[in-house]
Amino acid sequence: MSFSVADRVILVTGGGTGIGAWATEAFVKGGAKVYITGRRESKLTDVVGKMDQIAPGKTIPFPCDLGKEEDIDKLTEFIKSKEERLDVLVNNAGPFYVDTVDEAHDPTKGMDQKCPFPLAFSPADAWKEQFAVTTWAPYTLTLKLIPLLAAAAKLGDGRGSVIQISSIAAKFWNPYWSIPAYQASKAGQEHTSNILASKLYTFGIRVNTVSPGSYDTDANPSFHEAAMSHPSNNERIPLGRSGGADDIIGPILFFASGASKYVTGQRLDVDGGVMLVANGTNKIAPYAQDMESTLKA
Questions:
Q1: pLDDT tens digits, one per residue of 125-135
Q2: Which domain covers residue 56, as residue numbers?
């Protein structure tokens, strides 16, 4: 059994920031060749610059918008022109849409009763973009890369691995959070992961899901009071803190390596225990302390 990713060819979408950038660094340090994508070329350039100090020429950027089929086609053709196989595909890219909660978007406007939780209308275009990049794109990109993934799978040792980076939001319905488009799209991504796993095992391709909880990233910055990674929420996370790079790269390396060669169709929450308390108890909420006091009264 080996956790090594040496000499593996890997594609990481959303590789310019956050978990995608952390995974890229772990892969490069492990001896892999890594292609990274993202909409912001400057972010990709920054990551490549850092990775070249570790292993020159091992990180190749390809700017694209995965919400557009023509960009997915350009990406797959680029990879196919460079490689005969793809050992690992990490589907990590995805926007993070938050509802605008104000009077203009309030569905209870004019009613005597007001909802004590954030509730808002949101534009169709926001949901379309969220689902296009988070749910449709990983499914479509995986399908278009089947020939390269299957070629890798024939070599054995866990190659031909698809890793879906989802979120605990897929199973998270705590009423205090106003991210329904994100939550629904992640649930869709996880369901398509199982669909892919159930079909692609015939090629030897494995599909597994890593679902992070709270991590200090661009989308969840610890300095922002409304972010889950804000220190004020640490006491609400069973293990007492948000996660960091070292917490998430281990599971990703597991699914990318031969150590997981007998694993497919699985989901792993890497959340410090958040899902033990997130739903029903309302502990993961801005006013958790007040609610607990009320319930005890």
A1: 999 999 999 99
A2: 9-296
